[in-house]
Amino acid sequence: MKMMNEHKAYQPPNNSTHVFHQHQQIQCVVEVVSAFCKIVPNFITWPNGCLKAASSAAFQNKCGICNIIGAIDGCHIKIQRPTTRGGDYLNRKNYYSVILQGIVDESGRFMDIFVGTPGKVHDARVLRKSPFFETWPERMERKKLLGDSAYIGQAYPFILTPKRDNGALSVEDEQNNSRISRGRVVVEQAFYRLKCKWRRLRDLQNTRLDVVVMSACMLHNMCMGPSDICNEHPHGCPRQEDENL
């Protein structure tokens, strides 16, 4: 937990009676987060019919759009350059990353995650590679997600996206874009809180990236309460430089 919550290399407590070599420290951390991953399905779950109805009502209240049960986006997790095919991980902002695809409900709770795709890959392609894409017809049940313009296309009929501003949008189009933006901001805020609380995600060492990120998402869900307010940032966690692209 200490390692996950700090943006620096893990160090044992000063009063520790044991001296670990660095590789032993890393192994201990990996064993702990690997154990966390075994219970991830208990805390990152797709909603049942009743929860979908509740989310739909909440999103309609939030942004005025009906039949919405969540929002989807991709988040870049900064890493060191991998030794194999390192160029594939260099993203548009010129740092190395893997992508965390997250789908959240109206409160910012993760309902589905997919992590590990190289940072160079477009969000829409990440979605097509994810297990969720293979099962969306059964999961969505004629409901929709909110997404940004990365998901515009006939391949994603379950995602409601804004119209691209070509300079000729109607007033109705602008209002609809505004409603979509007002609803989908919840997934961006979830990523902000995730990186603010579990600061190791701002710059991961290349050790079992998947299990560390999945563990952080699980802890994010576990720690959410009726009023999920950051003690450091009561008005909202700030966007980090390595945040969504």
Automatic annotation (TrEMBL):
GO molecular function, one term: nuclease activity
Protein name: DDE Tnp4 domain-containing protein
Domain DDE Tnp4 as annotated: residue spans: 72-221
Keyword Protease (UniProt): no
Cofactor: a divalent metal cation
Keywords: Hydrolase, Metal-binding, Nuclease, Nucleus
InterPro entries, per database record: HARBI1-like (IPR045249), HARBI1_dom (IPR027806)
One GO CC annotation: nucleus
Main location: nucleus
Compartments in which it is found: Nucleus
Superkingdom classification of source: Eukaryota
Family assignment from sequence similarity: Belongs to the HARBI1 family.
